[in-house]
Amino acid sequence: MNPPRANSAAARDIANVLHPYTDLKSHLQNGPMVISRGEGVRVFDENGRDYIESVAGLWCAALGFNNDRLVQAATAQMRKLPFYHGFTAKSHEPLIELSEMLIQRAPVPMSKVFFANSGSEANDSAIKMIWYFNNAIGRPKKKKIIGRIRGYHGITIAAASVTGQVVNHRSFDVPLPGFVHAMTPHHYHAAEPGESEDAFASRCAEELEKLILAEGPDTCAAMFCEPIMGAGGVVVPPRGYYEKIQEVLRRHDILFVADEVICGFGRTGSYWGSQTLNIQPDILTCAKALSSSYLPISGVMVNERVFQGLADESHVVGTFGHGFTYSGHPVPAAVAIETLKIYDEINIIDHVRQVGPYMQEGLRRRFADHPLVGEVRGTGLIAAVELVEDKAAHRNFDPKAKIGARLVRHMEEHGVIGRNCVNDALAFSPPLIITESEIDEMLDRVAAALTDLTGELRRENLAVVQ
Ligand SMILES: Cc1ncc(COP(=O)(O)O)c(C=O)c1O
């Protein structure tokens, strides 16, 4: 690769930017892809080349990349009240209206909403609220947080601890003590030979109960689940899984936190992933599509029981000593209000129910039989195509071969920005406004990229591909 021109955007990036989720050393050689503008489901690089964003940025730009109403909502709010806060009982209209809208739309009765700026902060806040709640109700030992292997809940210290991914733990000295991880409910990899989905779901619940009993039920406070795991490779649990694990949690009085940071706002074909997967959470966190990601904002909804605990304890302490300068910032709140109004007006759920199955069917028809594809999975507008070395044995490639990353590079050559997740699972989570013809175009480009990768692997004798 040629070194970038002096003073080009790429050279200035290499000189100055410390990138999230990037091999920082390789980046000094390889440099960035500089994205300059967006339009609908596409973004354009600095040379004007278009890419379909098959993951909506980071599973988040639900209304695509140039929604003018959101720009206007931000501008109008900037002019009216560019900043105010919610500390010490101050409030403002966007904070009140957005809270009301979220409570009205919650999948189960919720009492109050707390705002933060990112999914990680929402989950960290939820963890602190759970500890505070259990102190309030006289259970100071009941503090452990259960995540799942491959689950993703963010990267602040507590959120990274409940996350179950190696790259978020290794060398960062997390997880903190008091965080444990249950098994991944992925039938494709974890089922015993001949085990039905129902039997597998039951085993997941039994394993969870064993974990809780080993830790001590009176020490376990809450379990965090993404209804469908996103960054862990779009893991859709087997039917009945959440019914079974929620029964275990209820038995031991352990709170359920639904992390709806990806699944919320229509992604799975219902307003919430909790509705698609039959979850009744005590606490729900959301972010990303809440503002179509045009400005940073996230929320934590708590039910009445949790709220009462927080209220009682804050009364004893004298204040609820938690909150960010930008909790409920009026500008992102105004953008979120406009986003939710647009979802209602364009009936985003019906749209996802129409184009989601179209994308799922297209992915399966085009890729499921390909010799390099082990599993195509997903629902609504979230899916994954997992690449394997041995299709019959469900065996992945050696991670060192970086097969998924190579497919992502070929996809970029063909005009699609993609996302490689755990186990070489290529994620699909396009803007929710995507149309059927844009899905066709995206899948044509991905198919061309897969053909290129197949040819490359055949030349390298890395895989038996006819
Ligand atoms: C399910 C889930 N929770 C939490 C987060 C963290 O959100 P953020 O990156 O805004 O901190 C993410 C980010 O991808 C996520 O997918």
| Dominant shape | globular
For the report, how would you describe the main beta sheet? Answer: 7 strands, mixed
Report the β-strand fraction as a percent range.
5-15%
Oligomer: single chain
Ligand set: pyridoxal-5'-phosphate
Rounded to an integer in angstroms, the radius of gyration calculated over CA atoms is 22 Å
Query: Mean of the pLDDT scores?
Result: 97
Q: Give a count of the beta strands, DSSP E runs of length 2 or more.
A: 15
Helix fraction by DSSP (H/I, runs of at least 4): 40-55%
> Spatial order of the strands in the main sheet?
4-10-9-8-7-5-6
Provide the low-confidence segments as ranges: none
Terminal-residue CA separation: 31 Å
Number of helices: 17
Estimated structural class: alpha/beta
Supply database-style keywords.
single chain, about 475 residues, alpha/beta, 7-stranded mixed beta sheet, 4-stranded mixed beta sheet, 15 strands, globular, binds pyridoxal-5'-phosphate
